[in-house]
Amino acid sequence: MKNKKQGNNWTAYYDSDTSRYFAEIIYTSREGREQYDYEITAEIYSRLGTFSDDIDNERLIKTANKVYSFENTMYGTLGPEKTVWDEEANEAMNDCVKKGR
Fold first, then answer.
1. Of 27, 44, 48, 67, which residue is least crowded by CB atoms under 10 Å?
2. Is the CB of residue 33 less than 8 Å from the CB of residue 72?
3. Which residues pair with 74 in a beta bridge?
4. In whole angstroms, what is the distance from residue 13 CA to residue 32 CA?
5. What is the tens place of the pLDDT at every residue in 27-58?
């Protein structure tokens, strides 16, 4: 099984050690950077990349459980802000990302 799938703004990972799936969506603009991390299911992972439009892939990812959100603007109006919903899942995803890079 492929351990990584990628689009323009999203990347999905499969961790074969734990049999868990994760995805991150990152938006970067002149105003700053936003990152949203999710723990996804095997079904979602298998469907990612089958859509012709990245927006459809992002919509599918957003149906999963969000584990982390980060928003930082250049102008300082919002942040930096860091919110972690599930610390364990966030750490597991960070480990998975490190293995995949």
1. 27
2. yes
3. none
4. 24
5. 988 777 889 999 999 999 999 999 989 999 99
